[in-house]
Amino acid sequence: MNFIMWRARNVIQIVLVFFLWDSVFSDPDRVVFGYNRASILTYVFGILIVRAFVLSARAVDVAGEVSSGDLSNYLVKPIDYFKYWFTRDISSKALNLVFAVFETILLYLLLKPPFFLQTNPLYLLGFVISVILAMFIFFVILFITSAVPFWMPEVAWGAQFIVVMVVTEFLSGALFPIDILPRYLQNILYLLPFPYLIFFPLQVYLGKLGAMEIVRGLLVSLFWAVALCFLMKTIWNKGLRVYQAFGR
Amino acid sequence: MDRAIIVDRLVKNFEITEKRPGLSGAVSSIFHPQKKTVRVLKGISFTIQPGELVGFIGPNGAGKTTTLKILSGLLYPTSGFTQVLEYDPWDRKHEFLKQISLVMGQKNQLWWDLPAIETFKLTQAIYEIGQKEYEKNLDELVELLGAKKLLNIQVRRLSLGQRMRLELIAALLHKPKVLFLDEPTIGLDLIGQQKVRDFIYDYNKKTGATILLTSHNMNDLVDLARRVIVIDEGKLVFDGALEELVHRFAKEKIIKVYLSSQEDIKKLRTIGKIKKIAFPLVTLAVPRTTAAVAAAEILQNFPVTDLTIEEIPVEEVIRKVFKNEKISFGL
Questions:
Q1: Taking CB atoms and an 8 Å cut-off, how many pairs form between chains A and B?
Q2: Which spans in chain B are helix H?
């Protein structure tokens, strides 16, 4: 039931963004920020798919477990907590993907937007790799913010909310394509991990980037994946030392 | 391996932020957090042999649960040395975790929406228990705890006592060599308590597992533990046999006399402290050293039909420990 509501929320969000951009581009010949009606709508539909892969993470519950002390149940068992959640995440993503495909078809039939199907296998390969890296980066970011309650047990959701809902949604390209921002902001953003969550994979899929740009982007996101993973391990090791195993 | 558990000068401090009441208090807590260090364990030491069943007692907040959590690798000790089965618990090596189990009476690890059998299957996978061994262990545990009918019922529909029995099964499927039980009978009715108690006793006898158990329930300790460790305010105050605890503490003995007439009954007061009069039975407390003399005196001067000299019941001694009475243990 929770799951269905979550999917419904997803669809509504897409429909909202869709109509927002649809009304901006009501004149099919209008070009804003280098996007015309067809390309922006493809982008919006792309978001639906990539979101289903990347931003749908079960690991948002980790902070709650740290805060409530339910983490203890896992720590005393011979399982790797990180891998445990990663597995849960992947299985949940598979489920989400099935629904996302279904929703996309449904919305496609309803709204009849122009949609671009990538056929070049190299772009598709780049897309798959970038999405896998994006999933991993987002997962690690969640784990880092989930460590906050080690020090402030009452802030189970606060840190999560700021990072996930505000920063990530905004900077990842989930609301609007990043290349409509001023050039210098874009340059800064490309050094951060966020655009590689949604915007970059989509650009690869849409074939907007050259081979060099794709390779460079993949290297940057690989760097972030490794660096954030290292940071997460360090923070968690520190956090577990002050962990108080609440709830008796 | 001659020591299953070694604890040496274990210290644990918690840093807590104090919250002041009210909105202004909450705001000022953000800007000027008042950190306070709570010293939960102030250097306790003990060792436990393989196969021992030890009761861990003390009043609320004495540090019992904290010790168990450190020994199972949940908490990082501030200082001191701990070793369980020759591992450092904090490393949480998988080989170590596969040999221990921590059961907390107030925490449940069963999946709420699924029948317990699903949790057991997950446990089998986590602990990498072979199918044959799993079936054997499960049958054995289900038998011992009389839980056959409960396996396929959604956990949320079960009573607390039924759930506790299933929790125990989940915790023991991998046959841990060391078992930490935190209040295993809390909230259970008398029959439930007895079932769990009998089970713990049998399990210890059958498998030779080392068991460290905390409890507020006197019967748990009297029935199960030959040896008790008493801690109070983070310090170890007694470690030894249960009888010895009674011996050390009880400076008095109990004389029970059955009288044939009520005359002179008040005069018994001159011999010892009268604890209860329920004619024909009168219960007296007399100093341990003069118990024999007092008994002789009673026999001479009163119309006695029967007389016994007893130790103060263990329950009462432990109750006093729990009530946090300052006890001179002569340590």
A1: 45
A2: 22-31, 64-71, 94-97, 116-126, 131-145, 160-172, 190-207, 218-224, 242-249, 291-301, 314-322
